[in-house]
From TrEMBL:
<dbReference type="GO" id="GO:0003995">
    <property type="term" value="F:acyl-CoA dehydrogenase activity"/>
</dbReference>
<dbReference type="InterPro" id="IPR046373">
    <property type="entry name" value="Acyl-CoA_Oxase/DH_mid-dom_sf"/>
</dbReference>
<dbReference type="InterPro" id="IPR006091">
    <property type="entry name" value="Acyl-CoA_Oxase/DH_mid-dom"/>
</dbReference>
<dbReference type="InterPro" id="IPR009100">
    <property type="entry name" value="AcylCoA_DH/oxidase_NM_dom_sf"/>
</dbReference>
<dbReference type="GO" id="GO:0005886">
    <property type="term" value="C:plasma membrane"/>
</dbReference>
<dbReference type="InterPro" id="IPR006089">
    <property type="entry name" value="Acyl-CoA_DH_CS"/>
</dbReference>
<comment type="similarity">
    <text>Belongs to the acyl-CoA dehydrogenase family.</text>
</comment>
<feature type="domain" description="Acyl-CoA dehydrogenase/oxidase C-terminal">
    <location>
        <begin position="277"/>
        <end position="366"/>
    </location>
</feature>
<dbReference type="InterPro" id="IPR009075">
    <property type="entry name" value="AcylCo_DH/oxidase_C"/>
</dbReference>
<dbReference type="GO" id="GO:0050660">
    <property type="term" value="F:flavin adenine dinucleotide binding"/>
</dbReference>
<dbReference type="InterPro" id="IPR052161">
    <property type="entry name" value="Mycobact_Acyl-CoA_DH"/>
</dbReference>
<feature type="domain" description="Acyl-CoA dehydrogenase/oxidase N-terminal">
    <location>
        <begin position="7"/>
        <end position="117"/>
    </location>
</feature>
<dbReference type="Pfam" id="PF00441">
    <property type="entry name" value="Acyl-CoA_dh_1"/>
</dbReference>
<keyword id="KW-0560">Oxidoreductase</keyword>
<dbReference type="Pfam" id="PF02770">
    <property type="entry name" value="Acyl-CoA_dh_M"/>
</dbReference>
<dbReference type="InterPro" id="IPR037069">
    <property type="entry name" value="AcylCoA_DH/ox_N_sf"/>
</dbReference>
<keyword id="KW-0285">Flavoprotein</keyword>
Length: 369
């Protein structure tokens, strides 16, 4: 795809966003990909062909490139648009289904994802396990016709509104010499028997995270995801999509954009120019990962680098604008964005794997440990 065509695509998205704003269909928000659940907005994006862009046409998708998808998602994130409803399904589940799913699973789930009608969560993290996914205690036991799953998952964004999540569970006893062995994944119906979704509320009272209790949940054989025992390889592949995208450095971009509209405030920020430069660098790095994934290559280490640097920057932006705004009562819109950013800030470096853990991933990938 030529640079000119890509620029035209970005212009189309910006025109769409401007029209949405003009009609009052959304208000720009911080962390829009996590907290902005708006199914009507998602359906309008789907109608424009901007969900499932990289999904082959045989599954209802659009057969476009990862770079084109990157351009669309970057524009939507920069605008603070409410993309949360389809985000996980489009970013992570669709490419994982194409890589590891059965033909039946692809035909059953991908058309709904592309249409903005089927929503997913992620069932990885657990209490007391944190970013150490090899420590998960959720277990799956084989029974006639399928598997029985028991355990608890936390930080499952959107599980209260999603249809499914992909659950990581242990299917064989822990081998202390190889903690990554014996893990498997399952597509779990979040509205099925034995599933209880309980809200985890943020300090400001908002609700987008959840705890999911799996009490002897039956998963039929046709909803086993990938190969039994191959869960660790699959999860690490999925995490490359989760960690490398523009959402890892643009969660607080609406703050930067709003600050740029207030030149006096922007000039009072010693970090404003440096943060713009950091954003530009991360844009290039993240786009490079999109090219790598498009070529079918692994990008685990590069994705971890983007995640560590990007989420650190997101927090720095929140802190910087919070300090320079102070008690200024004449900037209500900026104050609203800052309030959300400071509330969400602790999660920036936690979700998708803590930055401390990812530094270890980077060191190992570079042969340093």
């Amino acid at each position: 795809m030529t640079d000119r065509t890509l620029a035209e695509l970005r212009a189309d998205v910006r025109e769409f966003v401007a029209d949405e704003l003009a009609h009052g269909r959304f208000t720009p928000m911080v962390d829009c990909w996590l907290t902005g659940w708006d199914e009507a907005f998602t359906r309008r994006l789907a109608h424009r062909g901007w969900i499932g862009m990289t999904v082959p046409t045989e599954y209802g998708g659009h057969g476009r490139s990862h770079v084109e998808r990157f351009a669309v998602t970057e524009e939507l994130l920069a605008a603070g648009a409410p993309v949360g409803a389809h985000w996980i399904a489009d970013r992570q589940i669709a490419p994982s289904l194409l890589k590891f799913g059965t033909e039946s699973q692809r035909r059953r789930l991908l058309p709904g994802i592309v249409a903005g009608e089927v929503f997913f969560g992620i069932g990885m993290s657990e209490p007391d396990a944190g970013s150490d996914l090899a420590a998960v205690r959720t277990r799956a036991e084989q029974v006639d016709g399928g598997w029985r799953v028991r355990g608890v998952k936390v930080w499952t964004s959107g599980a209260h509104a999603a249809h499914y999540f992909i659950c990581l569970a242990r299917t064989s006893p822990l081998d202390t010499s190889d903690r990554h062995a014996g893990l498997s994944q399952f597509i779990v119906d979040l509205r099925g028997p034995g599933v209880t979704v309980s809200p985890i509320r943020s300090m400001n009272g908002s609700h987008h995270f959840n705890e999911v209790l799996l009490d002897d949940v039956f998963v039929p054989d046709e909803m086993v995801f990938g190969d039994i025992g191959n869960g660790w390889l699959q999860v690490t592949s999925e995490l490359a999509f989760e960690r490398s995208g523009p959402e890892r450095f643009l969660s607080t971009f609406p703050l930067v954009a709003k600050l740029a509209d207030e030149p006096d405030l922007a000039r009072s920020s010693p970090a404003f120019g440096a943060n713009i430069a950091r954003l530009a660098g991360l844009h290039t790095m993240s786009e490079s990962v999109a090219h790598t994934l498009a070529a079918g290559h692994d990008a685990d280490v590069a994705a971890a680098v983007v995640k560590v640097l990007g989420t650190t920057l997101e927090g720095d932006i929140a802190d910087d604008v919070d300090v320079i705004l102070g008690d200024d009562v004449h900037q209500p819109e900026l104050a609203r964005l800052v309030s959300t950013a400071t509330d969400q800030r602790p999660g920036f470096t936690l979700r998708g794997g803590t930055n401390e853990v990812l530094r270890g991933v980077i060191a190992r990938g570079l042969g340093m440990r």
